[in-house]
Amino acid sequence: MRPVVLACFLAVATAGAVPVSAAGQQTAPSDQQGAPTSRTVSPAPNVEPNGFGSHPREKHESLFVRHQLREFEVEASHLENESRVLRNREEAFYKRIGTLPRARATCGAASLAAGFLTKISYLKTPGFDPVTNGGTGNGAGLYNPPQSDATPVPSNYVALFRKAFTIAPGGLQTALCMVNNVYIDTMYDPDGWAFWEAPPQAPQGQGKLFIGISERLLSKLVQPAPLTLSDLEAGILRGLVLNLPNGVTFSKGDPRQDTPEMALLAVLAHEMGHLLFADQLNTIESCGFFANSWTGALAFPDRFHQFGIDNPAALHKNGEPYKDEIESDFRRHRTYDGIQKLGTLYGANISAPNSHNPSSATSTAWVSLFSAVAPDEDFAETYKLVVLRNAQQGEALTSLTLQFPDTSTTNVSNALPVNIVANMNSAALQTKARCINLSMTP
What we know:
By secondary structure, this protein is an alpha+beta fold. The chain contains eleven helices and 13 strands.
């Protein structure tokens, strides 16, 4: 058993996702044999129906090729069985991880915010690498746990973390207090990561929970003209789809909600979603969270889920497009096809190139393109949106608008909006939201 449960990266504003092949893409079933034609053509003299001549050598080659194909089929079947066994083991591990005892942390009995701030430090580098499971993944050596660097955390970072924690719903505040450390990561571009120690990385009962936040992101959140929530979401979308048309972007929202602290809260909530997914997958599944969106394996096959990578064993239940299909359309300059597929995931009914009329989105099962990458991202993104809708101190999110361009004109004013928060009124997303209890803790 591999030793650790990991959560995935969150997106970066400009770095982009690692290009991958179309994983999880459903293969269309082969056509059934049609009715006999009215005219049967006999094979030419001295030629076998399979196209090989009647020469003994050609017959021998034909039999050899058929034999090789049969061997390949048998080997492919064996590999699929082995892959299924591994997927089942991984899923079983995820469903058991929440029962493992661990070193629970708190924020102390005084101020929760003050206690949370004591958990924040710089990550000592070089050293811990979440991608390689801290040194235990990908055939590497012994576990190298994360360590704090003595560098003081800048006061503007501390103030931003305080604001983000203060506006978080009470349940998330409690959950964040159970994380052992929040590290400022100077090495990696992704906005955030989460990590759960599991034996043998830590003795039974002493495994810890960590969240990492990119300093690159933090530095942009404290600039005079800071990055805000809508900017963060635009960066995630562009990180997932490298050739996204300029007209597909998030518009600026209510200045009371579209703030730097809401952006940081979004990253913290997404990463907490991964820890909750690892901790409570049984409960989440039995509630019906995935019933309208996924079939196949729910747990990602690798313990650390890097940003934007599809889960090849998980399929969209209702045939919705995959991220790589959309990216392929834009890369090949099939702009309308890409916009139409992207609009499908966001509940926008784009009917024709010259008549884009996004409907009131009442049928989508996804809160974002990111959520359609894999089941764990689906839960993390949905949890994030539920958190943002329940933010405190007047910052509860009521609108997050994605603009789709009208490709029939170059007039920017013809942009077509979809309010992602309003999409939560869809039946499938209401079911998912009911499965998310903000008092959930890892």
